[in-house]
Amino acid sequence: MKKILIYLVMLLSVFSITNVNASTKTFERTEEDLLLPKGIEATNENLSNIMMTPAVDAKEKIYDFGEILTTTEEQKLYEEIVNYINQTNMDIAIVTVKYNNKHNVQTYAEDFYDYNNFGVGKSRDGILYVIDMDLQQIYLTATGKAIRTYSDKRYNTMLDNAFQYVANGDYYGSCSSLIKSALSYSKIDSTEDDSYVINEDGTVVKDNGTLIAMGLFAIIGTAITMLILVNMNRTVYKPRFVRSFLVKDTVSIKRVNEVSVGTQVARAPRKKKSSTPQGSGTNSPSTGENPVNPSGEGQINN
Q1: What pLDDT score was predicted for residue 274?
Q2: Which of 116, 221, 269, 301 has an alpha carbon within 20 to 30 A of 7's alpha carbon?
Q3: Burial class (CB in 10 A: 0-12, 13-18, 19+), 148
Q4: Is the separation of the CB atoms in 175 and 78 below 8 Å?
């Protein structure tokens, strides 16, 4: 099952990559040649969706069907994508949509990934970020190892930041931020997420401001406790290196002032597509997670 996040926006080397220029070039699918990745089978249920899915060169990585990125921006994003893939051994692609012929951004995004040759390894590890100008939505989906790499908290943080750029009409900034935060998080143990925040540019860093504040509160608390013990005629010893000890071992950093910018996250279970047993499956191996039901959509007004 793939994990996805969808935001409603009211506005309007390891892996070989050879083509530097983003394009919207597509190839024609026919019933005789559906141009499917190895391991994906056509059935009566998915044939229509396959035929409606653009067939693209998976090496290009950026597909600006919405025509919202400049050539220079596409070049910069491509370089960031290459860096991400080489450092994580996971795939990443960006799609902008002018007209969504499936009228559903989730279906469009998942089909685009599944019915083209995206992903690293048998579990096709990677993520896909979609900016849908038709339905006015942004969407992030993950496959394989990427599901385990990006927790719900990480998804929320990444999409919150990317959303703010889109809301301001900065589509390049949204894509760049998403790539940078995905790369940063891939290097951080998920158990330490509470100690990190996302910068405006998308990079993920230690939350030093909260660390200092909580450290000061801890010191004050220690001092008060010492005074109480002294007044109780108890023998006490002044602790040494209090700040270093607290920072390393006892302070739990919490993100503060998180802004939801009027959005809510909606999650939906991923429908498994047909695949042959020997092929590179579309869906990642089961992680034992329970599917999450959709919880609604949020919006902001211009």
Answers
A1: 61
A2: 116
A3: middle
A4: no
CA dist., res. 111 & res. 141, Å (int): 11
- Interval 163-177: pLDDT, tens: 889 988 999 999 999
Question: Which residue, among 271, 261, 260, 268, has the nearest Cα to 295 in the 3D structure?
Answer: 268
**Residues of the chain predicted below pLDDT 50:** 9-21, 210-218, 225-269, 277-302
The rounded distance, in Å, linking the Cα atoms of 276 and 21 is 33
CA distance 180 to 176: 6
CATH of 3-188, one of 1.10.150.650, 3.10.310.50, 3.30.390.50, 3.40.1190.20: 3.10.310.50
Q: Where in the chain is the domain with CATH 3.10.310.50?
A: 3-188
Closest CA to 199 of 208, 191, 190: 208
pTM metric for this prediction:
0.67
